[in-house]
Automatic annotation (TrEMBL):
InterPro entries: DUF938, SAM-dependent_MTases_sf
Signal peptide segment: none
SUPFAM superfamilies associated with the record: S-adenosyl-L-methionine-dependent methyltransferases
Protein name: Methylase
A Pfam family matched in the record: DUF938
PANTHER family: UPF0585 PROTEIN CG18661
Amino acid sequence: MNKPFSQACENNKRPILNILSEVFSENEHILEIGSGTGQHAVFFGQHLPHLTWQTSDLPINHQGINLWLDETALSNVQKPIGIDLNKAWPMPKNNPQVDGLYTANTLHIISWPLVVKFFEGIAQNIAAKAIVCIYGPFKYKEKYTSESNANFDLWLKDRDIDSGIRDIEAILLLATSAGLTLLDDHVMPANNQLLVFSKR
């Protein structure tokens, strides 16, 4: 099996790293929700060696993630745990306390009920004062930030009617209910945002 590869990950990893290196500077244990190909995990693990980076995804994606992890053999990037947002999160046993969470390009792929479950999982599993980083496209006041995002949303819904670019206002309501305070909303390349929250 060849390693899975995402061109989007390749394109956005360095702009994201520029922000993570600042916001995760005092963190130790990061849980990544939806590690996908594993590209982000190994890149951030290489460049942020002070972090223990715990990958996670549905079991179907673990083999591909492990191919990236095995090739780079980074001691600070952990093998994926199986997280299904419909179920209780099996928190990594070797990490005493998850004090940071990262997810990229997940909230527009999963259904809205799972977006709700995602924030419920943060409320239940993530420590106070943790930093939570969410990367992806959003709508503002029901408007897309670009024509390409509007077209992307049509493509998403055509593929899966329950997916789609989310309204930032609805996301912020869920975040508040999960005990999160928005610190920054960074404008990123390719019409994406990087939301940075702190857990109260």
